[in-house]
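subagent[fold] <- orchestrator: predict structure for attached chain, return tokens only, no commentary.
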Amino acid sequence: MKIGELAKRSGLTHSRIRFYESIGLLKTVERRPNGYRTYPPETVLMLDLIATAQQAGFSLDEIRTLLPSDLEQWEHGALIGTLRRKVADIEALEARLAQSKAQLVALIKDIEAKPDDIDCAANARRVLSRMMDGARERPTMAAGDVKLLEKATRRRSAKAR
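subagent[fold] -> orchestrator:
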């Protein structure tokens, strides 16, 4: 099938399909004498797998190592292991995000609980003092966690557009 038909079936743009081919996620395909690419029918499945893996949070490099060059040679054990590791990563991120959310909710409540007899500047000092005391007692997010959070936030923002 030509790239136009593949794009229709997969829901991806021509340029995205060419990009996946150029970075090795899709096998290099045959070209007809007129220069048109011809893709085998299983390419639709490969593109669906790539899109699903990306939606699940896999990077293109992770997908490259995950996908076999031929669907007949997929190593079941390696696939299950990789998927389980990704689930564990997601669960760890969820736990860290829940902790961050709880800290932010507590901060909001602390700010909103401003005593009537103090001004905003005094309230800010009161809240910052409590935050500093709390920071000494609890661990902070690791740099890698912050990057994962930023990546997830960017992905959510992109989907919302």
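orchestrator: received. Logging for downstream: The chain has two domains: 3-73, 76-160. The longest helix spans residues 76-112.
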